[in-house]
Design a protein that fits this description.
Order of helices and strands: HHEEEEEHEHEEEEHEEEEHEEHEHEEH
Bound molecules: zinc ion
CATH architecture of the largest domain: 3-Layer(aba) Sandwich
Distance between the termini: 19 Å
Number of helices: 9
Shape: elongated
Largest sheet: 8 strands, mixed
Helix content: 25-40%
Strand order of the largest sheet: 1-2-6-3-7-18-8-17
Number of strands: 19
Radius of gyration: 24 Å
């Protein structure tokens, strides 16, 4: 295996990916670029599906086994104010051993590692143990329509999905689920010149938020996926007039949890809000969150650390990297949650660093890509 050439080609491919902007709904150019690269690298099959996801397959020694799927997304978030970036965000410049730019760690560098780990076997005249399919899906950053389309149209068995979301070359075994609910306080609207004649719900909201700030630490924890968090985000009132007290005011509560249910969270909010007239309505629950008013625990995805699949991946990746990967979890949500209802095991493994994703300092370390290539190649051989 010529590791130096493999890494050099993988780095160049990453730079080209960064130089090809691919905001959600605008992934066509990058999908074509990746398809062309996979064809040139000698992949057995390359195809685009009905929503614009790009797929590439290399055949394994035993084609009767379920496939190993390497999943990344094609889109990225907006670069924002360009003057805040150390280099132009679509330059893909290399500075101090790191490739810089929007999408470098989330997720174009990891995507390149996935594609080139497959290419590595082809170049060496080897075959993976089972079929390996690369899948680059659209619209991850705006809800995951590409991943949903992919899994709904899946027509081959899958043994494991490896997510390219940044995990710092450790194994990310899951993340919390998202639940958002509106809490509305009602009052009585009057002219702002005579506030005592009405009932201003903003005071109830203020007192509620103070209680929430203290009580939020009472929410439960998951041993690996972490503590339940709650953040009040949007606040709205019914009126646009500055000289009228509101009839109602509402706050959106964003919960992240792997240990609470919709009902337990709702009960928590009810308890803190009970002194004032209020209603709770659910705004949005991310899949695979059970329908509201269930006692089922909410989570994003979770692959237990003691499961056989985790042990096998850990052993293979450790042999490739020459060190044991830690078992960890993501803070953010991923497309992994869309695959849970289908019962396919999911593990995140990627050279990107989560804390750099979506920032103006987004970059990826070339030496981490090198380590990840070795881990991926070992995984493809052994899994
Ligand atoms: Zn991502």
């Amino acid at each position: 295996m010529n590791w130096d050439k493999l890494l050099a080609d993988c780095v160049k491919f990453t730079q080209r990916l960064i130089q090809t902007p691919s905001m959600p709904h605008e992934e066509g150019t990058i999908a074509a670029l990746i398809a062309e690269e996979m064809r040139q690298l000698g992949f057995d099959e390359v195809w685009l599906d009905g929503i614009g996801n790009v797929n590439g397959r290399i055949h394994g020694q035993d084609r009767s086994l379920g496939a190993l799927v390497l999943n990344s997304h094609l889109d990225h978030v907006d670069p924002g104010d360009l003057s805040l970036w150390p280099v132009p965000p679509y330059s893909g410049e290399i500075v101090n051993g790191r490739i810089l730019g929007r999408g470098a760690c989330d997720i174009k560098g990891p995507l390149a590692v996935q594609v080139y780990s497959m290419a590595a076997l082809l170049r060496a005249g080897e075959r993976p143990r089972r079929d390996v399919v690369f899948t680059g899906v659209v619209q991850e950053e705006i809800g995951g329509a590409g991943a949903v389309y992919w899994v709904e149209h899946l027509d081959y068995p899958v043994a494991l999905i490896v997510l390219g979301e940044p995990s710092n070359n450790e194994l990310a075994l899951g993340h919390r689920g998202v639940v958002q609910m509106w809490l509305t306080f009602s009052g009585r609207s009057v002219h702002a010149s005579v506030p005592d004649k009405g009932e201003n719900p903003n005071y109830a909201l203020a007192r509620f938020l103070t209680r929430l700030e203290t009580a939020r630490h009472e929410l439960s924890q998951h041993p690996l996926l972490g503590a339940t968090s709650v953040a009040p985000t949007i606040i709205e009132v019914d009126t646009k007039s500055g000289n009228v007290t509101p009839a109602w005011t509402r706050v959106l509560l964003d919960f992240r949890t792997a240990s609470e249910s919709y009902r337990s969270l709702k009960a928590f909010v009810e308890r803190l809000a009970e002194d004032w007239p209020h209603t709770i309505t659910d705004a949005w629950c991310a899949e695979p969150t059970p329908v509201p008013d269930s006692d089922e625990t909410i989570y994003g995805f979770y692959t237990p650390p003691d499961s056989e699949v985790v042990q096998r991946v850990r052993t293979a990746v450790a042999a490739g990297m020459g060190r044991e990967p830690k078992l960890t979890s993501y803070q953010f949500a991923t497309d992994g949650r869309h695959f849970v209802p289908y019962g396919i095991p999911i593990i995140g493994y990627s050279p990107g660093e989560e804390e750099l994703a979506h920032t103006v300092h987004e970059s990826i370390a070339i030496d981490k890509m090198a380590e990840s290539l070795r881990g991926h190649v070992a995984l493809l051989r052994a899994f």
